[in-house]
Amino acid sequence: MPTAAVLDAALELAGVSCTFISNDAPGQRYTAVAGVDLDVGAGEFVSVVGPTGCGKSTLLNVAAGLLAPSTGRVQVFGQPLAGINTRAGYMFQTESLMPWRTARQNVQAGLEFRGAGAREVREQADAWLRRVGLGGFGDRYPHQLSGGMRKRTALAQTLVLDPDLILMDEPFSALDVQTRQLMENEVLDLWAAKKKAVLFITHDLDEAIAMSDRVVVLSAGPASHPIGEFAIDLARPRDVAEVRTEPRFIELHRAIWDVLREEVLKGYRQQLDKAA
Amino acid sequence: MKLAPNPRNIRWWQAGLLVLVFMLWHLLTKPGLVPPFLFDNDRQAAFFFGEPLVVFGRIWTWFVAQGDIYRHLGITLLETVLAFGIGTGLGLAMGLWLALSPMAAAILDPYIKALNSMPRVILAPIFGVWFGLGVASKVALGITLVFFIVFFNVYQGVREVSPVVLANARMLGANQRQLLRHVYLPSATSWVFSSLHTSVGLAFVGAVVGEYLGSSQGVGYLILQAEGTFDINTVMAGILVLTAFALVLDAVVGAIEKRLMKWQPRAGETEKL
User: Fold this and answer.
1) Fewer Cβ neighbours under 10 Å: the N or C end of chain A?
2) Residue B5: phi, psi to the nearest 5?
3) Which residue does chain A place closest to B170, by CA atoms?
């Protein structure tokens, strides 16, 4: 882990806790995450893995400024975060495109909101559509695109704003394996070209190791917190499909899985108990 | 063309059904054609139900021979369009406002429910007193009918905006005004359009009922005059004309909807790639 990154971290969570009030039983509280310290250095690719329902998305929403933490501090490039994190781009797990806008209009949305000139907006949107391989599909509405194409549109929509920090919430979990690997490689290429800070949430350990500089393991909820941190020293550039066969990858996978397995089982038992 | 009903000749079948209904009407009401089986003599059926040929003659006189209905029709349509436009605008504004400020919605909730459950047709005489017997009182009645339909649909539509799309737009840097313009409004439009089909009909109802209860012009006024002299044929002619124009208004709304809602997926569409 580069120590310099901590000094001018793109994102710094310190002692962040999030407690929700239960909807069906007021007075009953649920603490999703507690005492989370997490840094993402500028240009660093950090993945967070953890069992389902451990509050990974909560952390991301805190980093995005969509959710204010109950306690703790959030700093973005050294500045305390208040309201929406304007330096961050967010790729959501579920469909986030505006269905009433074409692919091009969706990519243009952020630039328009920022009041950029019409011609510049159009040129940048087209350039990004071409970059994600959708040059000829600008005039299509989201429902006319396949799931993978919608994800690529969402990627272009986020990256056209050139955010300094990219937040990704299991962005490819809904895709089939082949499309997913293509998208992962695309993201790595784009990241390598721009070297932005990335906070990547996933439940897929393979994906986390293949893409990241660092993998953080979260404990099972409630009150989940980081219980392990692993620097991924695989050489770059990587191909997400090929890197999986390297001995070092398998070694890292085993080490992280040793930590993660217990938490996954714990999370699974909790879900069973809840259902019972 | 095959005669059995299929998607291609459906219009012919619809037209045929209409002709059939009019023929049946003619058969049962034309004096002397069928021996009376319900009434005492063969003139009573025509008296109570009118005769289609006379009705069509009446419509011909209105539109072509004398051309004196245009003034009345124009007034009725003006009232309808005004009531529809103003009612929709108010419903849209109010729906957006209350959906986005839960506190105001909570305070006003019982009043809106009370106003909506009130039978609004009884307001027509009051509006007549307030706004006179001209166009304004009919428009006011139409607005009270249209407003609530649009209001409830917009309210619902805004509250059902996908939270992810909303969060995404915020992350992309949309401020409150831009969220309203680019997320809430488009998201509510599908709800609004489903309500517009109902509300254009209700605007028409408001105009005609208003005229019927007190006016000096309009199609409702013509019908009222005819009823005063037991001229059932003219009443029927008025009803037919109103129905035809209600259909036209609905088709206009449908055409606008098709234009504005082209982003919506339709069942059976296979343009996916």
Assistant:
1) C
2) -60, 130
3) A84
Q: How many CA atoms lie within 13 A of A226 on its CB side?
A: 18
Contact flag A146-B272 (C-beta cutoff 8 Å): yes
pLDDT along chain A (276 residues), means of 10: 56 89 74 88 90 83 90 89 89 90 92 88 90 87 88 90 90 83 86 88 89 90 85 87 89 90 83 77
Confidence check: pLDDT of B123 > 90: no
Q: Does B122 touch chain A (CB under 8 A)?
A: no
B175 touches chain A (CB under 8 A): yes
Predicted model pTM: 0.78
- CB of B37 within 8 Å of any CB in chain A? no
In a domain, A124, yes or no: no
What ipTM was predicted for this assembly? 0.86
Number of domains in chain A: 1
Question: Phi-psi bin for B215: left (phi > 0), alpha (psi -120 to 50), beta?
Answer: beta
**Interchain CB distance below 8 Å, A149 and B174:** no
Sign of CA dihedral B196, B202, B207, B210: negative
Residue A177 maps to which CATH number? 3.40.50.300
How far off is chain A from B184, nearest CA to CA, in Å? Answer: 11
Domain assignment present for A94:
no
